[in-house]
Amino acid sequence: MAIFKIIQEASLQQSDLWQGTVEYKGETLQYRYYDGFDGQEVYILTDQGWELGTELGNVIYAACQEWGGVEDFGPIGQICEIDDDIVESYK
Questions:
Q1: Closest CA to 61 of 40, 36, 79
Q2: SS3 53
Q3: Which has the closest alpha carbon to 54: 78, 75, 81, 25?
Q4: Domain locations in the chain as residue ranges
Q5: What kind and span of H or E run contains 59?
Q6: 8, 19, 42, 91: which is deepest, by most CB within 10 A?
Q7: What is the pLDDT of residues 2-60, one digit of tens each?
């Protein structure tokens, strides 16, 4: 089971780009979720900058596919859980 907690609700940064903050495996991490006409991508802010293809990125992507979008994750403090098999199916 992948579990993350909402630290800062996602907000719209540009027309198709959302940004929020979650706690995942004891770390507070920022993410960006792009939901445009040409696809969807999740970027995680690391020491190297905004990165695609991270473990948390896969979790957030799967949650968006299952629940509708980052705006559906819930309010600050919400604990979100998604089954590992679901995350694997969206990789």
A1: 40
A2: coil
A3: 25
A4: 2-89
A5: helix 55-67
A6: 42
A7: 999 999 999 999 889 999 999 999 999 999 999 988 889 999 999 999 999 999 999 99
